[in-house]
Design brief:
about 350 residues, alpha+beta, Triger factor/SurA peptide-binding fold, Chitinase A, domain 3, 2 domains, 4-stranded antiparallel β-sheet, 3-stranded antiparallel β-sheet, 13 helices, about 50% helix, globular
Length: about 350
């Protein structure tokens, strides 16, 4: 079973995007809370989450993700608080099992982030400061994500088995459907469309171009649609087509590094600026419209596997992994919550 969703190098590129958009807040212990005037909104065993921590997270929720939650009749504030509670339960479970992350592992992850984004140490620190954080805070958040990576990989991915019969049934329209908007943190599927904004760049003007890209991202999250932003600002393919670089490009058709980024975006969420050397990119994904069940072709003597191409079967396998991963995560989290003392004071 591939561990691409939880591999350290992939996680590094994901954390580079996720932590800049969603700075991780560390709940306080009850002893610390006793001297703190902030209101406690949740208690998770002996740890608490405060109102200011919750509000900090709420400010950074992308508009598209807010709309997805509200469309399902959910309460954005409670959804975000629940994610903070789940994060704390994961951390506590890791402590019980003795799962640790060393400073060397954090160093390696930080180096991978800098290498993938073509940043030297000083540029990296400057980018963190511009994004409202600093290196110590970033490393602390990265450590939490690496712990989560380890525990989820150990307890969940190792138990996921996808059979060829399940893949065939899924492609025939007989299996479960994946809805990326309901899988926060688990990203887009390979069939989701990709939109891009290209900004011409060079080593001499990269900081200026990155700043412009951040400004565009802020405008999109303030209400400007991605297609409108692409038409207004893009300097490359897709400018006159709402950001579509051509032929309804899909996540699974991207280059490997961009695939890693796109798969971690909730549809509608905009990536952090990606420095590609000659261009800076902003990307987003559009959830695929469920297609009607495909009519099975006549079976050859080789069997049912010949009904669909290798690419179709590989994409179906990834979608089934995503579905089963979410199911197992939900079951595991429900068990953690059942055993924990969780009090919500909203």
């Amino acid at each position: 079973m591939s561990d691409r969703r939880f591999g350290p190098l992939l996680l590094a590129s994901v954390v580079w995007l996720a932590l800049l958009a969603f700075p991780q807040a560390r709940p306080l212990s009850l002893a610390q809370a006793a001297t703190f005037t902030d209101r406690i909104v949740a208690q998770v065993n002996r740890e608490v989450i405060t109102l200011s921590e919750l509000e900090a997270q709420l400010k950074n929720i992308p508009k598209a993700q807010r709309e997805a939650i509200e469309k399902q009749g959910g309460d954005v504030q409670r959804e975000v608080l629940n994610l903070l509670i789940e994060q704390e339960l994961v951390n506590q479970d890791a402590k019980r099992q003795g799962i640790m992350v060393t400073e060397q592992e954090i160093d390696e992850a930080v180096k991978s982030i800098m290498d993938e984004n073509k940043l030297n140490p000083e540029q990296f620190k400057a980018s963190l400061i511009k994004s409202g954080t600093n290196l110590p805070a970033f490393r602390a958040g990265l450590k939490m994500e690496l712990i989560k990576n380890k525990i989820l990989g150990l307890r969940l991915m190792s138990r996921i088995v996808i059979t060829e019969a399940e893949i065939t049934a899924f492609l025939r329209g007989e299996g479960p459907k994946v809805d990326s908007t309901l899988l926060p943190g688990f990203g887009s599927s390979d069939n989701d469309r990709v939109l891009m904004i290209f900004l011409a760049s060079s080593p001499a003007k990269v900081e200026k171009v990155l700043a412009k890209a951040r400004q565009i991202k802020n405008e999109i999250e303030a209400g400007l649609s991605f297609p409108e932003a692409a038409t207004r600002y893009s300097e490359g393919p897709g400018k006159d087509n709402g950001g579509d670089p051509g032929n309804n490009l899909k996540v699974g058709e991207l280059q490997p590094q961009l695939q890693q980024v796109a798969r971690q975006l909730t549809p509608g969420q905009v990536s952090e600026p990606l420095n590609g050397g000659q261009a800076v990119l902003l990307i987003t994904t559009v959830a695929a419209t469920p297609s009607p069940p495909k009519e099975p072709a006549k079976k050859s003597q080789k069997g049912a596997a010949d009904e669909f191409s290798e690419n179709e079967r590989a994409s179906a396998r990834r979608q089934l992994e995503q579905i089963k991963l979410r199911q197992k995560f939900d079951a595991w989290m429900a068990d953690l919550k059942k055993k924990a003392v969780v009090r919500i004071n909203l």
